Amino acid sequence: MKRALAISALLVVATLLLVPGASLYYESGGGKGCTRCHEMQTLYDQWHTSSHRGIACEKCHGGALTMDAAFHWNNATRVYSHLRGDPPERLGFGNRYVQTMVEQCKDCHRQEHAAWQTGPHGATYARIFLDKPHNTKNMLIDDCLRCHGMHFEGGIGALVAPVNRTGPWRLTRTELAAMPAMPCLTCHEMHREGPPLKKISLEGSVPGPSQEVTRPSLALFDRRAQQYIPVADLPMPAMLEGTRAVKTSPDRRQALCYQCHAPLATMQVGSGDDRTGLGVHEGISCLACHAQHGEQTRASCANCHPKMSNCGLDVEKMDTTFASTRSKHNVHWVKCQDCHRAGVPKKKLT
After folding, report:
1. Is 226 found in the same domain as 138?
2. Torsions phi, psi of 204, nearest 5?
3. How far apart are CA 142 and CA 154, in angstroms?
4. Both 58 and 171 in a single domain?
5. Each residue of 143-202: pLDDT tens digit?
6. Domain count, the chain
7. What is the Cα 142 distance to its own chain's centre?
8. Is 337 exposed, middle or buried (0-12, 13-18, 19+ CB in 10 A)?
């Protein structure tokens, strides 16, 4: 009896050490060991040419010393699937692991993480899907997950109950309540090909037109195809004001914004969730006013209006939604004629 217990104990210990031992073995190869499972070759090749190629696999995905038992169990099940010749057609990245990745991103990108977390894109599943005023007016549908919770496995009925306009609503997956519905991997593909970000010295400075505008990782995760679409391949809508074509900024980063903040099929400015600039702000980029990760707009006026407007007035005190959310003049579409009903006065010469 004692011998049987001893053998059983040894088997348990060996099993417990097997997965972290294997992880340690693969880590020692600097990521190359991962390709021993052929289905990992494509991912390895992508990482090897990406802007994160200097970051070891275990830094983001966990390693031998990771204390999360679910991480090691997931690896064990993948090894089992590989050994029995039944690997998945495409290696996915479940919502649970996407949420874990947010913490890994924070280790290197602390400022960006802090800005994102305190901004509107850091909203939790509870904040987005248990919003009573919204849910009363709008029926929750699967398309909500296109922008909010795009890594969630399942439809809206698997996330929120009941699916109606009366409620009361609750999350069927309570562990998601405090998790972000739009994590970093919503807009960033870590394995996207591109050079690592470097600090440019004065001797190696680059002229303005040659400087980088968009990080290579910037891309939209398409929930339907379960893959990323780089910003360069995302469409920019042709916006209209009535029948007039609206001038829009050539800033390609806006293509990512438009995927969620899109107009209706009419392409009219201000329809749907669109915020394309009109009036005095026509033609400027979204990111001219909205900080990239936190979306703060506090310094946006000062960037272009260091002191006064053409009227000689402080633009930050004008009657727009910048100064007050109760204003009838949305800062995105404000025109001189909104205040100068009798005609815009000529600029005074000084």
Report:
1. yes
2. -110, 30
3. 9
4. no
5. 999 999 999 999 999 999 999 999 899 999 999 999 999 999 999 999 999 988 877 766
6. 2
7. 19
8. exposed
Q: Same domain, yes or no, for 169 and 221?
A: yes
CA distance 267 to 256: 17
Cα 198 → chain centroid = 22
The structure tokens listed for 40 are: 């990992």
Q: Helix H segments across 31-94?
A: 41-48, 57-61, 69-83
Listed residue (346, 337, 278) closest to 311, CA to CA: 346
Write the DSSP assignment of 217-240 as a string of letters: TBEEEETTTTEEEEGGGS-----E
Please list the alpha-helical segments (H only) found in 84-204.
Answer: 95-108, 110-118, 125-129, 132-137
What range does the domain containing 163 cover?
Answer: 94-193+215-233
Secondary structure element (H or E) that encloses residue 18, with its range: helix 2-27
pLDDT (0 to 100) of residue 156 = 95
Please give the residue that has the higher pLDDT: either 203 or 271: 271
- Neighbouring CB atoms inside 10 A of 162's CB total 12
Phi-psi region of 267 (alpha: psi -120 to 50; beta: other; left: phi over 0): left
- Range ranked top by mean pLDDT from 92-106, 280-294, 305-319: 280-294
Question: pLDDT at position 228, please?
Answer: 93
Q: Is residue 286 part of a domain?
A: no
Two structure tokens written together for 141: 């549908």
Q: Are residues 59 and 77 in the same domain?
A: yes
| Amino acid identity for residue 256 in this structure | L
pLDDT tier at 348 (50, 70, 90 boundaries)? low
What does the mean pLDDT of the chain come to? 84
Q: Which residue among 68, 91, 114 closes a domain?
A: 91
Number of helices followed by number of strands (H, E) in the chain: 11, 6
Same-domain pairing of 23 and 110: no
User: What residue has token string 């909010």?
Assistant: 148
